[in-house]
Design brief:
Number of helices: 6
Strand order of the largest sheet: 1-2-3-4
Number of strands: 4
Distance between the termini: 46 Å
Helix content: 25-40%
Number of domains: 1
Strand content: 5-15%
Order of helices and strands: HHHEEEEHHH
Radius of gyration: 19 Å
């Protein structure tokens, strides 16, 4: 019954709250996530430098938007981030935000940036290691050599 309901459902009705946040990547690879994945796939289909630049642009956007939010501290790592009647809960120790962007893609949302700045820390410290210059350099440390063979 439940599977039939899901198969008949409009895929645009699925939203980020339905997905696991353990993936730590900007893509979700299962059939239910195709609609969501289509909205974030642009950066994935570009060369690595373009993808990293897109990630930098997203971080810069979150930094700019973070100025609109007010911070209310809730313990050492917990924050209630508010703008008007909208509230999001950020836990820097667990690396979670109720908005779920950080949980799903490990890209910092404005709420997380707001909490990080309140701790007087650098947002880049909270990016996933896959987005760091060090990891980029390690990934491309070895060159693949061409081989003779058939035209593919």
């Amino acid at each position: 019954m439940a599977i039939a309901t899901l198969l008949d459902a409009d895929e645009t009705r699925f939203f980020k709250a339905c997905f696991s946040y353990n993936a730590e990547c900007n893509s979700v690879d299962n059939n239910l996530a195709e609609a969501f994945n289509a909205s974030i796939i642009r950066a994935r289909s570009t060369p690595i430098i373009s993808m990293l630049n897109d990630t930098r642009a997203r971080l810069d956007k979150s930094i700019k938007e973070s100025t609109k939010w007010n911070v209310h501290i809730n313990g050492d790592y917990g924050y209630k981030i508010m703008c008007g009647r909208i509230t999001n809960i950020v836990d820097l120790e667990r690396m979670t935000c109720s908005y779920r962007l950080w949980d799903l893609s490990v890209i910092l949302c404005a709420h997380v940036v707001c909490a990080i700045y309140n701790k007087e820390e650098d947002p880049e410290k909270y990016l996933a290691i896959c987005y760091t210059k060090e990891m980029y350099m390690r990934t491309y440390e070895y060159a693949l050599q061409p081989i003779n063979g058939l035209d593919l």
